[in-house]
Amino acid sequence: MRIAAASLAVIGLVNGQSLKFEVASIKPNQTGETRYGIRPAPGGERYVASNVTLKLMITVAYRIKADQVAGGPAWMDADRYDMNAKAERPSSVEELHTMLQDLLADRFKLRFHRESKELPMYALTVDKDGPKLKPHEAQSAGDPWIDQTQDHFPQTTWHATFAPMDYFAWRLSQILDRPVVDLAKLKGGYDFDLKFTQELPPNIQPGALLNGEAIDTSGPTIFDAIRRQLGLKLERQKGPVDIMVIDQAEKPVEN
After folding, report:
1. For a Cys-Cys bond, which of 56, 158, 218, 225 suits 196, CB 3.0-4.6 Å?
2. Where are the domains positioned within the chain?
3. In degrees to the nearest 10, what's the CA dihedral of 48, 137, 127, 152?
4. 48-105 pLDDT tens trace
């Protein structure tokens, strides 16, 4: 089944006013560095990126996996950019993401339409004994976020604050081999710690040495951890997955 919509660019509105960055700079990065990053800066006034591709900006702005972006020119996944964008006032993460979407439409002339395709995916659902999640109870909800720490690779901890399930599903998609679709349909945001052992990269074998010690691959997989610690489950299946089809993208004029 395939459902297509008209070509579009999203501009968010709050109280009748469009959400736009007050000023923004996007410049090519030609350093050849391998390190890269993109995220809202502390304080809620800036969104910054270093050495990132347009495709990565799209996946972050629209919270989709790179495999869910189809079409577009080859440079979208090759040319790298630095970005520094400032909002007029302190804003929520959701508002900053909407501003980022607007910025991509403005500077990269990004236009797209959406399709739904039957593809392999992971369904995020509630386990048979029910969820083990703690709703965020602070008077000021704050912004949804998940921090990752690794005291000993590949032992990983996710610390979630006010994380809704659709955001959690997107973060899971970034470390798994297929998109994660939120079918749990739990409302609100949650605080939780998730401790699991990440899969080793293909070039690292179990028992390999790291800093003179064998890599410890004991501990729960992401699938076991989600079920035991959160009362949720990930199931491999085939189902409808949202695809963004790029209709237009242009290289930005340096500013």
Report:
1. 225
2. 13-116+242-248, 118-239
3. 50
4. 999 999 999 999 999 999 999 999 999 999 999 999 999 999 998 889 999 999 999 9
**Contact yes or no for 101/228 (Cβ under 8 A):** no
Task: Answer whether 245's CB lies under 8 Å from 115's CB.
Answer: yes
CB-based contact 12:18 (threshold 8 Å): yes
**CA 75 to CA 161: how far, in whole Å?**
36
Angstrom distance (rounded) from CA 9 to CA 102: 7
What tens digit of pLDDT does each residue of 3-62 get? 444 445 444 444 445 689 999 999 999 898 899 999 998 888 999 999 999 999 999 999
Alpha carbon distance 211, 204 (integer Å): 14
Amino acid at residue number 66: A
Q: How far is CA 64 from the centre of its chain?
A: 6
